[in-house]
Amino acid sequence: MLRRAIENLGNRTVQGIWRMGFAARFFFAVLLHSGTAFRRFGLTIREMYFTGVLSLIIILVSGLFVGMVLGLQGYETLQTYGSEEALGILVALSLVRELGPVVAALLFASRAGSAITAEIGLMKATEQLSAMEMMAVDPIARVVAPRFWAGVISMPLLAALFSAMGIFGGYLVGVQLIGVDEGSFWAQMQSAVDFEQDILNGVIKSVVFGVAISTIALFEGYDAPPTAEGVSGATTRTVVTSSLAVLALDFVLTAFMFRGLN
Amino acid sequence: MNRTTLDLWVGLFVIAGIAALLFLALKVGSMNTVNTSDSYEVVARFENIGGLKVRAPVKSAGVVVGRVVDIRFDNERYEAAVTLRLGKHYAFPKDTSAAILTSGLLGEQYVGLAAGGDSVKLKDKDQIQLTQDAVVLENLIGQFLYGKAQEGAPQ
Questions:
Q1: CA A144 to each of CA A26, A95, A178, B109, B116: distance values in angstroms, whole numbers, following the listed order
Q2: What distance in Å separates the CA atoms of residue A224 and residue A120, rounded to the nearest whole number?
Q3: Following DSSP, what letter does each residue of A98-119 receive, concatenated?
Q4: N or C: which end of chain A has fewer CB within 10 A?
């Protein structure tokens, strides 16, 4: 009984490490075979349409609402200290530093990451990937790498759109609805938000998230057992793993970027 | 979907994303980090800098003219040496004085420069001679209480 439990634990550990190693090798293989994704950029553009353009609606609408809620809640709190004009700072800093990259990445993982996994998993299940190999077409270069780069390019653009939309939402609620002074809303925001420290770091975060989500989604799809059940399990794992990875990476990046700032 | 419509949509997406980044860079943030190329550094020594931090603004007449780039403790004179990076187009007389001030009641601390009357301007790596320390609240309260006690004392 005990022996069985220990064996089970050992097996899981070995499996886990094996999968991690496989994922790392997969990641480097994608990087190595990226040539086609840039030489035939049409492939990447096609994937950017599916991962980026089709995610626009959910990103823009969520950004607007997150910003509007931040405006309402921030105003309530700041009002008690008589500093309503700082609403611009609150909305802009929380969006640009944290909420923009992180929430956009979480939405991207569930909107685009799951779709990528399902697509690749099904391609594998229906032996389309093996068929490509038979025709001497490298599936990593032809199928995987364009999707990877499409995700990496789309993610920072989506995060920037999310932040911009959120700030617009905060402006709508704070200035137009509640009546915070428009001049001090923008002026205080501009004096508090620094281009390098805040905006550039937010962009770097979203690029890292893009790499992480694309890698996890593609790997789960590529590694999925070629059954209906396997593909559905892989899709679930993509959303769970990439969301957790985004949150954990966000903590690490924030600790490096913003420690010692204030 | 045919190729050109796809390209069009992706192009629009990229343009929108870059526009959002530009909006963030220009309207939301400001490039207020002074470049090393068009700036010069001066050192001001204070006995007490209070809560002054690196990256705090340097203001003259209320206008931001530079940033605090370095704060270190001088182990020979037991003072704080604060390095200020000022924009090259802001030239200050040599007898300019620096003071650590607070914006608002509980606001951030900044370095205020008051221009003097000297015709010689401050150069790179120069030192500001006249400085005024940060006001420490405890000392202020102590002085106030001391003054009150003196008032109330029998003549």
A1: 10, 32, 49, 52, 66
A2: 9
A3: IIHHHHHHHHHIIIIIHHHHHH
A4: N
Measured between CB atoms, does B140 come within 8 Å of chain A?
no
Side-chain half-sphere CA neighbours of B103 within 13 A: 16
Q: What is the pLDDT of residue A212?
A: 95
Tokens found for residue A137: 């077409």
pLDDT in tens, B100-145: 888 766 667 888 999 888 888 888 888 888 888 888 778 888 888 8
Q: Where are the domains of chain B?
A: 1-31, 39-141
Round to whole Å and give the CA distance between A220 and A224. Answer: 6
Q: What is the pLDDT of residue A7?
A: 92
C-alpha–C-alpha distance, residues A41 and A33, integer Å: 14
Q: Are A166 and A94 in contact (CB under 8 A)?
A: no
* ipTM score: 0.82
- Closest approach of chain B CAs to the CA of A234, in angstroms? 28
- 3-class DSSP state for residue B128? strand
Nearest to A163 among B10, B24, B64 (CB): B24
Q: Which residue of B has its CA nearest to A162?
A: B20
Domain ranges of chain A: 33-257
Sheet holding B63-74, edge to edge: B126-128, B39-46, B79-87, B63-74, B57-60, B109-114, B97-102, B130-132
Whether residue B28 and residue A96 make contact (CB cut-off 8 A), yes or no, is yes
**Using one digit for the tens of pLDDT, what is the confidence trace for B49-67?**
888 887 788 888 888 888 8
Q: How far apart are CA A150 and CA A51, in angstroms?
A: 7
Q: Which amino acid is at B34?
A: V
How far apart (Å, rounded) are the C-alpha atoms in residues A207 and B71?
33
Q: What is the mean pLDDT of chain B?
A: 84
State both tokens at A225.
């057992």
Q: Which of B49, B52, B59 is nearest to B87 (CA)?
A: B59
